[in-house]
Amino acid sequence: MLHGLKTSVRPVEEDDIDEIYQWYNDQEVNLWSTGAWPLNTLLSKEQISIKFLDGSSDGYRYSILDENKYLIGTIGFKELNIPSRSATLFVVIGNKSFWGKGYGTDALIIFARYLFTQWNFHRISLDTWDGNLRAIKAYEKVGFKIEGRLREARYVLGSYQDAILMGLLKSEFLAMHGN
Q1: CATH number of the domain that 89 lies in?
Q2: The model's pTM
Q3: In this predicted structure, what is the pLDDT of residue 25?
Q4: In the beta sheet, which residues pair with residue 71?
Q5: Which residues form the N-acetyltransferase domain (predicted)?
Q6: Domains: count for the chain
Q7: Between these two residues, 65 and 39, which has the higher pLDDT value?
Q8: What is the per-residue DSSP string for the chain?
């Protein structure tokens, strides 16, 4: 288990699936995590279980716990590129009572440290949509820099929004947060 100041990160367990299922089918959680309601939602518990527990899923997924070891979100990476030592991150604080309180930032810091020091990644990236200012601010606190914009690449609540691409290099992260 990885430990931060406010959060811990551990592998997803079978007991997490009911809560994760609720988040994946929550319009507000999905709006801010992907901007894609309902396109990324309306999954069955079985589909969620396969996505999070099956070793052949589309990425590596972990649970985020608060100080009391209560499940509050998920984090992980996909698009692993071994030659370039890079991957794309994703993070969701599914429990809305933990929004805007630094839990996502803390989880990203400990997870980025893990990827840079244990997996020896050189670079990690992530993306969001331009209306998700809270996420962009949290990502910048971790050290991510805006690297690009895909014009009108997301369709959010009936209108096209730009996708914001962000990246973080190992050297930048370690200079900002240490080992």
Answers
A1: 3.40.630.30
A2: 0.88
A3: 81
A4: 65
A5: 7-171
A6: 1
A7: 65
A8: -EE-SS-EEEE--GGGHHHHHHHHT-HHHHHHHHS-TTTT----HHHHHHHHH-TTSSSEEEEEE-TT--EEEEEEEEEEETTTTEEEEEEEE-SGGGTTTTHHHHHHHHHHHHHHHTS--SEEEEEEETT-HHHHHHHHHHT-EEEEEEEEEEEETTEEEEEEEEEEEHHHHHHHH--
User: Please, what is the average pLDDT of the chain?
Assistant: 89
Give CA–CA dist 132/11, Å, rounded: 27
Cα distances (angstroms) measured from residue 50 to each of 46, 47, 93, 136, 174: 6, 5, 20, 30, 35
- Nearest-angstrom CA–CA distance, 120 and 11: 19
Residue 48 structural domain = 2-177
Cis peptide leading into 38, omega within 30 of 0? yes
